[in-house]
Every structure is written in C-alpha cells, then in structure tokens.
Request: fold
Amino acid sequence: MARKRVGILISGRGSNMASLIARSAQPGCAYEVACVISNRPDAKGLQTAASHGIATVALDHKALGSREALDAAIHEALLAHGCELVACAGFMRIMTGEFIGKWEGRMVNIHPSLLPLFKGVDTHERALEAGVRVHGCSVHFVSEELDGGAIIAQGVVKVEPGDDAQALAERVLTVEHQLYPAVLDVLAQGRISMRDGRTVYADDAAAQLSILQDG
Ligand code: GRF
Reply:
C-alpha cells in the first residue's frame, strides 16, 4: 500500500519531528515525511530534516505579516509536496480557522500535558504549581480551539518529589517521542479518524495507544 505523505510543522528544536522521521525509516511504517515546514527560518529542526534528505520549507511569519498569509503559504507548501496528513510538532503559531478547516481530521498535534488540563504554554511549570501527581502529553486532532481538539492518545508520567520543570519536561519528552510516531503510524494506516468532533478507533489496538510510563 502506498505510504501516506506527511507534512511536519515545526518552530524550533524538532526533537518530536526527529522521532517521526526515525519511525518513517522503519520497515512497514505507513507514512513517509514529505516535507518539514517551519515558520522560523532559523529553526534547528530544519537542519536535522535536511540532514535526513527531507525537503524543508522555511517561512518567516514576521515577513509574511499576517496569520492568513502564513497559513496560505503553509497550505501551498503542503499541497506542493503532496501531503495527505499534517503533524504539528512544536509548531508555535496559532492557525486560522480557514486553514484548520482545510485539514480537519487530517492534522494532529502533540501537546505536553494531559489535556484538557494545561492548554497553552508553560505546561510543566503549571503542572508543578497545581500539585498534580501525574502529568504527560496528548496527541490530538487539531481543531479551532487551541489544544482543544479530539484527544487520540495520551502518555502519562508520575510527578516525582523534587521535580523541577526541566526534569519533568525531560521525562514527558521521552514519552512524547514514543507516543507521537506510534499514533501517526496508526493514523496513516486509516485506523483512527475523527467524527463529530470525537476520535473513532477502528480496532482495540488503535484505542490502546496510550502509554503509562513504568516507575
Ligand atoms: C514539545 O514538548 C511538544 O509537545 C510541544 O513543544 C515541544 C516541542 O519540542 N508542542 P520539539 O521541537 O519537538 O523538540
């Protein structure tokens, strides 16, 4: 079966992107990375993608001037590279409803919290401040509500005594790197979809992607 072509959107480091690329190199992976697009030309992840021979698109949101212009340029690049799915991986711009609508049910994101808790930024600091005992990450479909789309799978880590935001972020990131490629693969296999704003799983294995970290 033809592999699904994925466009990855990043803004910075790109460690999740790298984990998605690594999975795509494994035999039997249902997707290939068609391009990596950044709204920041200096994003480190662009170099990583290029070093893997993946097409990169550097857009400058400041030069483009508006959300609409950035989204139009991203959409054009995705189409130019034949993308069928979009994976946001540390993409730090709020997207227009028009753009999101075009990719509805085909665009996913990873967020570093157990949604619907801690939408937005500084999630690890806020988790510590709130005193939660478990924290983690969520892969969800992108909807118009920021970090509010249908949840597909979550990764859970314990909050340890003495954790600071960095220590917690590192443990969550380890789980992100396991969870996101697994979810994207199953999505590309057509075993996960979105209907009426909810995630629909075609089989039990697709519904059991969430990770509970040992320890
Ligand atoms: C990750 O924690 C991701 O969940 C969040 O932003 C961070 C991006 O890190 N959306 P990286 O660029 O993937 O290394």
Residues 10, 12-17, 89-90, 110-112, 137, 173, 176 surround 5-O-phosphono-beta-D-ribofuranosylamine (CB under 6 Å).
